UniProtKB/TrEMBL annotation:
It is a lipid-anchor. Residues 111-146 form the EF-hand domain. It is found in: Cell projection, Lamellipodium; Cell projection, Ruffle membrane; Cytoplasm; Membrane. This is Calcineurin B homologous protein 3. One of its GO terms (molecular function) is protein kinase inhibitor activity. Belongs to the calcineurin regulatory subunit family. CHP subfamily. GO terms for cellular component: cytoplasm; lamellipodium; nucleus; ruffle membrane. GO terms for biological process: cell differentiation. Keywords: Calcium, Cell membrane, Cell projection, Cytoplasm, Differentiation, Lipoprotein, Membrane, Metal-binding, Myristate, Nucleus, Protein kinase inhibitor. It comes from the Eukaryota. Its main location: other.
Amino acid sequence: MGASQTRTRHKYQDLAEKTGFSLEQIQNLHKRFKQLSQNEETISKECLASIPALDNNPLRKQIIEAFFDKRNQHEEEVGYFEEIGFEQFLMVMSHFRPPNLKTTEEEKEVMRKEKLRFLFNMHDTDNDGIITLDEYRKVVEELLSKSGAIGLEVAKGIADAAMLEVASTNVPHMGPDDFYEGISFEHFEQILKDLEMESRMHIRFLDVDTTTMRCGKAQS
């Protein structure tokens, strides 16, 4: 028993160094993970879709997809996992970790860049390093049409106008016949440079009541 606890602590310590979470936070997140997975070693998209905290989030689909996006594992791989284990789950959760009183300015800047990259990846669905007009339209249409107060055509027009504004800001000397390929990560950073997001981008997984959740896996 003691040896098992020691191995677990060493594993948690390694995860703490990789993610910036405390050992207590990792332990709590592991409990949530096991509840979501119904004690399985991996979770699927259906598991995350059952989280009440995401029900009213207009970017619910994109957030869930982001957990299975290989780009968000701090590695160079692209593509999507069918299911993820706890360490992969934790690596994605680290993008939502807010700074604390001990976080230095340099660390805050790193966290901000990681959050921006995470958001960028959510919109760059084809992994080509550019948020195209079509990708941008899908996000804007989903955001604006959720309430039912605005139609898809109107949302599409707003997305097109917004992309045109982005193009004129980032490439001010475009000719009338020039084609704007889309938003690069550098442009994305510039667009959001005044947005304070280090403490705003978070999901309250630790406070979720998971007793009524169902993962969607077949029951034996």
